Amino acid sequence: MINKNTSLRMQSIVFIGFMGVGKTTIGQKVARKLYRDFIDIDQEIEKEFNMPTTEIFKKFGEKAFREKEKSVIESLSQQQLKIISVGGGAFLQEDIRNICLSNCIVFYLDLSWEYWKERIGLLIDSRPVLQSRSLEEIEELFYTRQEIYSYHHSKVNTNDLDVDEVADFIVDSLKVAWDIYEPLK
Ligand SMILES: Nc1ncnc2c1ncn2[C@@H]1O[C@H](COP(=O)(O)OP(=O)(O)OP(=O)(O)O)[C@@H](O)[C@H]1O
Ligand SMILES: O=C(O)C1=C[C@@H](O)[C@@H](O)[C@H](O)C1
Ligand SMILES: [Mg+2]
């Protein structure tokens, strides 16, 4: 489902995956390594509302957040040569999945539950979807969400890899794909 009208080398890269797998951290690193601009969709939504995500959820509700998420992604994913990290729930919306898969290269950052659960303390304060859920409920959400992340072009399992190792793997695999599908003359 990759857009045939745009050169692969020009297409923006979109990172997907569950909350806390590293989309923002690794997206920033990859952007630096490829000399591209980085866009974090959660941060763009927060700028639009001028408040943190937890406040948006409290004041306006998840529905308003999801509507803004869709309009922000619809507009920004049309741009070329960007590195874009979307929120962990963005691919719940079919329209978002379709627009990202047809305009961009979608990279899934995969992390096993056993590794993910060690990160929970880093995440809970800023991720409203995790708040008020027990660990068992979060585990259930984690496994239910895997279905939406099955929509991707490429994937890396980040268990046991640090941020730089993941970013290097992604950059190397993109370069291999570019060279195979669009060799430079
Ligand atoms: N490969 C890694 N190894 C160790 N820690 C990591 C790794 N990737 C990310 N982290 C850490 O995990 C935490 C969450 O990362 P990050 O905020 O990038 O996740 P995210 O996928 O953008 O989450 P969200 O979907 O909620 O925005 C950060 O503290 C980050 O430093
Ligand atoms: O997985 C989710 O539903 C979310 C993930 C975060 O990135 C934010 O987009 C928000 O906290 C919701
Ligand atoms: Mg993030």
Strand content: 5-15%
Can you tell me the CATH architecture? 3-Layer(aba) Sandwich
Number of strands: 5
Distance between the terminal alpha carbons, to the nearest Å? Answer: 25 Å
Tell me the name of the CATH homologous superfamily: P-loop containing nucleotide triphosphate hydrolases
Q: Kindly identify the CATH topology.
A: Rossmann fold
Q: Please state the CA-atom Rg, rounded to the nearest Å.
A: 16 Å
Q: How many domains would you count in the coordinates?
A: 1
Number of helices: 9
Provide mean pLDDT, rounded: 95
Which overall shape is indicated by the principal axes computed on the Cα atoms? globular
**Widest beta sheet: strand line-up:** 2-3-1-4-5
Instruction: Give the ordered list of helices and strands.
Output: EHEHHHEHEHHHEH
Describe this protein's structure.
The structure is a single chain. This protein is of the alpha/beta class and 185 residues long. It has a single domain, classed as P-loop containing nucleotide triphosphate hydrolases (Rossmann fold). The chain has 9 helices and 5 strands, in the order E-H-E-H-H-H-E-H-E-H-H-H-E-H. It has a 5-stranded parallel sheet with strand order 2-3-1-4-5, with helices on both faces. Helix 1 packs across helix 9 (163-181), helix 2 (41-49) packs across helix 4 (62-76) and helix 3 packs across helix 4 (62-76). The chain is globular, with a radius of gyration of 16 Å. It starts with 12 loop residues before the first strand and ends with a helix. It binds adenosine-5'-triphosphate, (3R,4S,5R)-3,4,5-trihydroxycyclohex-1-ENE-1-carboxylic acid (SKM) and magnesium ion.
